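Notes from the 1:1 (GR / supervisor)

We went over the backlog. Supervisor wanted to see one worked example end to end before approving the batch request, so GR pasted a single chain during the call. The sequence is below; no edits were made to it. Supervisor asked that the structure be written out right there so they could see what the output format looks like.
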Amino acid sequence: MARRGRFSPLLPAGGGGLALLTVYGDQNGTRYYVEKYGEDGSFKSRFRLPDEFEPMRLALSPDGTALISGMRLGAPAEGEEKVRPFLGLFDRAGELVRDVTFGGDTASAGGGPSTANAAPGGVKQGTREALELSSVQFSSDGSFVLARLQGLGPIYTVSPDGFALKTIHPSAPTDSHLSSVVVNGSTIAAEFVRMKSGSTQHEISDVFISLINSQTGEQQALYHHSSWKIGASLACYKGDTFTFLAGDQNGQLQIVRAAAQ
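Structure output shown during the call:
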């Protein structure tokens, strides 16, 4: 049987370059790899993940360690689901250094007390959508940032050696939901969108960007725009400038930069 492969979108890697999740499958099973490329597109490194993990989101640090969010497969412990969410730190050889856990982030799929005690936005075991609606990023201050992009979050920070640091429940404007998160040093830019009332086309009426201190969890500033020319796909925040991906009047993709005011 011919080998088949799948690729995740290219992601910025800590220290420069790009990171990529690759998936290969044949009659012998499915294998997952983490690859790093230089800024010029040259191949730098690659490691294979253990077979018990199905990665979905990745952040790569300059020293090659990776924080990965996804599903843990295989025989469960007593009382656990067969497929369980996981967040783990892996070394540059692909070995699991440690599981990263936040109280309330994972709830039982069957409901009950564990679900009732889960944090808002907590991931239900056995569900893929909540994990796919997440982002993991490396920050230039050395930490990792995990965001659950459903409802109002939450946002988590993780130390370089894989220990949970802080859970942030961002303050959202009325009738908005968390859409994306980008990181610049110790500042988290959390984008919230408000849908147009009465629209059946999933139209966005307002975009809000909350700047949050990742160490304290406090909001430093709140910005707003309602221009379709700027768009709602926040891609980067650096030097008081927000970079968006947006479509022009001809439907062509364009890069739009907006200054914080």
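Supervisor's comment: The longest strand covers residues 204-213.
Batch request approved.
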